[in-house]
Write a structure and sequence with these properties.
mainly alpha; 196 residues; 2 domains; 8 helices
């Protein structure tokens, strides 16, 4: 896992997420654009491969990311900002719901006629998909048992690839080593939950 994220904010130049959110709530379009410009590539990297191939006919992953940001910004007044990690967790939840909705929608569509000589589908089999789904459900269940700060730290590290220094900034931790400990303890707790 990379120890840095390509769009790491420079705290001397870039305003924190909390400041941008306040400006967006006040109607500042420039702040809205800056917020989208920062989180769009982060969500696009995270979302890559989350939408199964069979569900991609109606909505591509990038479309779902844009829908996610629009939904989040439309309901920004309902969001209680506790830090960058909290906002990213909020965006992740909206995006996961959008992916699940698209998967449900695609399974309700009638199957298209197969074409002779069509390329073989290398997507996971039904069993592989079920096993993966079960593991994902255990992961999500274990993640839900964490306190918000731990959950945000795990999401930032495991799912978004943030450095420990960036996580420390996002969850208001004193140091990168402190953030590393928060993540380590949370992952150990999740492992126990997933094994139970």
């Amino acid at each position: 896992m990379s120890e840095s994220i390509s769009n790491h904010r420079d705290p001397l130049v870039d305003p924190p997420t909390a400041v941008l959110l306040d400006l967006v709530r006040a109607g500042d379009e420039a702040a809205r654009e800056q917020l989208v410009a920062y989180f769009l590539p982060v969500l696009q990297r995270w979302a890559r491969g989350r939408l199964p191939r069979y569900a991609r006919t109606a909505a591509e992953t990038d479309d779902l990311v844009q829908v996610t940001l629009l939904r989040a910004l439309r309901h920004i007044d309902r969001f209680d900002h506790r830090g960058e990690g909290a906002f990213l967790a909020y965006l992740r939840r909206i995006l996961l719901n959008a992916v699940r909705d698209e998967i449900r929608r695609s399974t309700r569509r009638p199957p298209h006629d197969s074409v002779e000589g069509e390329m073989p589908d290398h997507a996971p089999s039904a069993v592989e998909h079920a096993i993966g789904q079960q593991a994902m459900e255990r992961y999500e269940s274990a993640l839900a048992t964490l306190e918000p700060r731990q959950k945000e730290a795990v999401l930032l590290r495991v799912e978004f690839g943030y450095s420990y220094a960036h996580i420390a900034d996002a969850i208001a931790c004193a140091s990168a080593n402190g953030a590393r400990m928060v993540v380590s303890r949370a992952l150990a707790r999740m492992a126990r939950e997933m094994d139970a």
